[in-house]
Design the sequence.
């Protein structure tokens, strides 16, 4: 029998350290839903999702009850809609977002990802229609998430798309001005987007994926924090790394177990476990506080990038052995509004966008859930996207930007999004213009790093 | 299916008896018990076999929790697999 101490340790992780399965995400291929008639295409999409995912939420809840581990979200990712809709003879893609939203509500998932386009090398006509529809789609629907991939290491960066996304984000914010620009919290701009990410808002079901798939995202910043706290302030980094590895192993084993169980019960192949440390706004569930536990007074001060690099690497090393297939984004997330410690660090002025940008060089995603003043120009937002995409392109990693130019706000204001999306302190951006740079357009060529054949 | 029942709460007379009675009423067979008192808190861990259990897992969990609340105890039941996954390679 398992030792009582081990049982109590697991229960303590769940009860006091916020250990949970962050999401079970079902990927669904929608390519077979294509049809020239918009109404029929929408009906096909709705029917396919509802048929495929009707057991997802009940199965998730049953696993939750039997294993005694919270499964916070049950979600769906679908084939990028710009591909599914390419045959539709219509200019406006918003009805497709409504179809996704209706299906999400019918099966009881809180988010559905895949109102997406992959334009890293260029736009199809369908990609342009989809991007044009994003601000309205995110305003008029509740659960739909959108993403656009504007660059890859292999293709370089599509700077026309970068420019377009600055405008798109501004429009999405203006259309939801009464809620602080909340539509932007459902929109991610990627470089090197992955096809099997279970986390929102950037999840979509890639073309290389099977008909259906189950991907699971684990979490547990609180558990890592508690483990480091018990280690004490004088332990060398060798011990810090080892402690994070062991903790990540335990967390991921649980994710693997839940993933296999969900896959078996749903009769859907298991895809990957995403080894992520995903914070929530709850106290004790923060990535920033882990970095501070390593000895930094406030997250964002000098040393933060090194601390995050160690954390991110040790999470992967511990997790890789615990799971049969690792994928998705896998690493530490640093969404500002969703992390109690990051919020405090940003409010103190120590954590800046420039430091966050440096941190994205060594962790799993990018500038995530950052509110900036409402007067921030579209070109500045595009330039922020270009910087992040360049980091991703050169370093062979996924980077993303989920930024909210909250209308009517100034630096120091707080924007409340509620729930897991949390509260965003409005952070300063540089005043100097990037307008001429962004208006050039064209493509940044693929870097040497991409030429590996 | 095997499960771990964990009972945590203020020590009092008859905890083991009442939990065992409740389990036996539902045809749950107790395979192993470990019990200790940690800083005035009673901690009991039981390995139970649910193969003949007359209730669904979720109903059993709810009933145990309700029973515990009446006595100031936290009673939970979880499949053994989660502990094996987390603590055994």
Sequence:
């Amino acid at each position: 029998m398992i030792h009582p101490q081990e049982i109590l340790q697991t229960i303590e992780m769940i009860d006091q350290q916020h250990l949970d399965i962050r999401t079970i995400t079902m990927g669904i291929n929608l390519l077979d839903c294509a049809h020239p008639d918009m109404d029929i295409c929408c009906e096909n999409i709705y029917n396919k999702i509802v048929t495929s995912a009707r057991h997802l939420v009940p199965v998730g809840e049953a696993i939750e009850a039997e294993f005694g581990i919270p499964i916070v979200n049950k979600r769906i990712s679908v084939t990028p809609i710009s591909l599914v809709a390419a045959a539709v003879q219509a200019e406006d893609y918003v009805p497709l977002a409504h179809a996704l939203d209706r299906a999400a509500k019918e099966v009881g998932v809180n988010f559905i990802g895949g109102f997406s386009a992959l334009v890293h090398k260029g736009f199809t006509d369908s990609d342009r229609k989809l991007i044009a529809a994003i601000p309205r789609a995110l305003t008029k629907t509740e659960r739909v998430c959108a993403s656009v991939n504007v660059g890859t290491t292999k293709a370089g960066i599509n700077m026309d798309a970068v420019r377009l996304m600055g405008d798109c984000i501004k429009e999405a914010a203006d259309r939801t001005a009464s809620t602080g620009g909340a539509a932007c919290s459902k929109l991610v701009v990627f470089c090197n987007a992955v096809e099997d990410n279970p986390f929102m808002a950037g999840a979509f079901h890639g073309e290389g994926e099977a008909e259906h798939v189950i991907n699971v995202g684990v979490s547990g910043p609180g558990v890592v924090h508690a483990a480091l706290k018990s280690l004490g302030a004088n332990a060398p980094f060798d011990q810090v790394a080892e402690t994070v590895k062991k903790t990540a192993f335990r967390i991921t084993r649980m994710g693997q177990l839940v993933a296999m169980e969900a896959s078996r019960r749903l009769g859907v192949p298991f895809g990957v476990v995403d080894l992520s440390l995903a914070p929530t706004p709850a106290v004790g569930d923060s990535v920033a506080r882990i970095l501070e536990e390593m000895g930094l007074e406030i997250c964002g001060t000098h040393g933060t990038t090194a601390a995050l690099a160690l954390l991110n690497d040790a999470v992967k090393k511990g997790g890789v052995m615990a799971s049969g297939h690792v994928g998705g984004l896998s690493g530490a997330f640093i969404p500002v509004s969703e992390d109690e410690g990051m919020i405090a660090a940003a409010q103190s002025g120590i954590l800046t966008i420039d430091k966050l940008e440096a941190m994205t060089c060594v962790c799993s995603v990018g500038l995530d859930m950052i509110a900036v003043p409402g007067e921030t120009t579209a070109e500045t937002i595009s330039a922020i996207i270009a910087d992040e995409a360049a980091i991703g392109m050169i370093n062979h990693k996924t980077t993303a930007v989920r930024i909210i130019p909250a209308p009517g706000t100034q630096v120091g204001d707080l924007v409340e999004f509620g729930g897991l999306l949390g509260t965003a302190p409005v952070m300063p951006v540089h005043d100097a213009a990037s307008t001429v740079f962004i208006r050039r357009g064209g493509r940044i060529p693929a870097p040497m790093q991409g030429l590996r054949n | 299916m095997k499960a771990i029942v964990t009972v945590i709460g203020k020590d009092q007379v008859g905890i083991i008896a009442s939990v065992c009675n409740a389990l036996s009423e539902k045809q749950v067979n107790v395979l192993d018990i470990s019990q200790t008192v940690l800083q005035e808190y009673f901690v009991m861990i039981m390995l139970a076999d649910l193969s003949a259990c007359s209730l669904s897992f979720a109903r059993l969990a709810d009933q145990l929790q309700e029973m515990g609340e009446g006595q100031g105890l936290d009673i939970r039941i979880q499949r053994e697999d989660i502990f094996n996954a987390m603590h055994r390679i």
